[in-house]
Amino acid sequence: MVKLHIQKRQIMKKFISLSTSSQNALKIAQISSTLPVNILVTGENGVGKKILIQEIFPNLQVFNGQKLEKMIFHKKINLDSFNTIVIYEIDALINKKDFFEKLRKIRVIATSRKELNEISTFFPVKITIEPLKNRKEDLDELINLYSNDAKKIYNCDIKIDDIKIDISQNGITLKQSIYKSILLKSLTKDELIDTMQDFFTREFENKQTTYKKLLEIFEIAILKSAKKIYKSQLQMALKLGINRITLRKKLEQYGE
Amino acid sequence: MKNNNFYKNLIENNLNPFILFDNNGDLQEFNKEAEFLFNTVSPKELYSLAIQYASHSFGFEYKFINLKYGQNNYYAILVGYLNENEIGIQLYKEICTELLTKKMNNIEFVNIFSLIEISKTTTLLQNTKIQEIYDVSIPEIKININEFLLTLNNCFTLFKQSSYLKIKISLEIGEYEIIKKKKYQIIFIKFINNKKITIDREFEYQAHKAHINLFVQDKTIKLKFPMIL
Q1: Any idea where the domains of chain B sit in the sequence?
Q2: Domain B4-93 maps to which CATH number in 3.30.450.20, 3.60.40.10, 3.10.25.10, 2.60.40.10?
Q3: N or C: which end of chain A has fewer CB within 10 A?
Q4: CATH 1.10.10 domain span(s) along chain A
């Protein structure tokens, strides 16, 4: 079982390349991996830069750009001992030109969140990974992978259309939003009470709340869901068992 | 004053190309250097250049402009006309004062078609229609991969806005390069697009570092390099 679990996790880490642009990125990374040249992978947060590098260069020493810059500055690293290294987030380096001057004799595979024109000659191979919004096939595949995994973990059967998806930070927020969405939909009544209890406790500890304020949480959720199910305010009032005038007041109060 | 024959000979043997046109743009006279120049630029284009930079009235006028035809750079032109029937132009060739010694450092065997594929895919936009004519019998050759890729990237960057690009890779028939007394065949990569190509000094310097000779003409750029095996 444990073995199966590990295998599944490894599959989840594979660089998804079903769209033309990601297929191109993978192809170029594979071809250039055999050449003695520096490679820069650029793209927004969460597009899969690190996953692509891990897939092509699984056994290389990895550094964070800023940390390595500090280590070089304080002479805490012997660069002569490396042939090839991976450096993440080189866009955050303070003095890029100096930094790469010191790495002249080493092959560098790096990631950056933006184009870096000032050091473009240091990287003959520049691979750009498009954001997920431009890679529909990859996005669909990732949604499938993450939601299937989350559904198994939380033992919850939910339609993909009912999952709230956030790709503002590509794969990072996509994964978070899918897991969160499925987790919340899988909650039982007792778990929900527990969760709310935790939330109320924190609110009371912070002394930022009142009974009335906490009551809003129930009322807004009830009114929103009732509005979704019932067509008219008349029907809503009837089903909720409250006066129509009271219902209208509450809807106005919460801007529903 | 010397006789006319002396001046004629002086112009004929000048290192700078000289051309005399009639008022229809037809060639009247030209020297040896101009004859070489016609291999890379048409007389029609040079006539247009002369008309563009001629003085308002009769006389001679210098203009310091950067021109590149074939492998030669020109830093100035002199245009003159003394009547309505003839107009002359002289181009001033730039001479490189430092000796360009090509060093073949860090050369390694590589498949140049892979490098083309990398550079093309990472630089060009997807809406460029590409026609590729490759002589796939060209074997892996020794080059400085880093510098070669940077030069290719510069080339493909030129065509980012082009809707059409033709790439031809083949052996240059009948041309050789001699390096350290050894004779090598020449490979060329020719890019043809639908827009006029202009390159800057940095571009040329990069190509030089990659041991590539550049030939730019109108909408075509040709890269020539030795086939070192």
Answers
A1: 4-93, 108-226
A2: 3.30.450.20
A3: N
A4: 189-253
Query: How many contacts (CB atoms, under 8 Å) link A and B?
Result: 36
Cβ-Cβ contacts under 8 Å, B145 against chain A: 35-37, 124
Check: CATH 3.20.20.210 for A2-130? Answer: no
DSSP H helices in chain A: 2-12, 20-33, 49-56, 65-73, 96-102, 136-154, 170-186, 189-205, 211-229, 233-240, 244-253
Q: Does domain B108-226 have CATH number 3.30.565.10?
A: yes
Q: Do B149 and A27 touch (CB under 8 A)?
A: no
Contact (CB<8Å) A35/B110: yes
95-124 of B, contacting A, C-beta below 8 A: 108, 110, 114-115, 117-118, 121-122
Assembly ipTM: 0.74
Q: In the beta sheet, which residues pair with residue B213?
A: B224
Measured between alpha carbons, how far is A30 from B117 in angstroms, rounded to an integer?
A: 12
Provide residues of A within 8 Å CB-CB of chain B: 20, 24, 27-28, 31-32, 35-38, 121, 124-128
- A79: tokens are 């660069």
Q: In tens digits, what is the pLDDT along chain A, a chain of 256 residues?
A: 334 343 444 444 689 999 999 999 999 999 999 999 999 999 999 999 999 999 999 989 999 999 999 999 998 999 888 999 999 999 999 999 899 999 989 999 999 999 998 888 999 999 999 999 999 999 999 999 999 999 899 888 888 888 889 999 999 999 999 999 999 888 889 999 999 999 989 888 887 788 888 888 889 989 999 988 988 888 999 999 999 999 999 888 888 7
Neighbours of A159 (CB within 10 A): 7
If one counts every other C-beta atom within 10 angstroms of the C-beta of residue B167, the result is 19
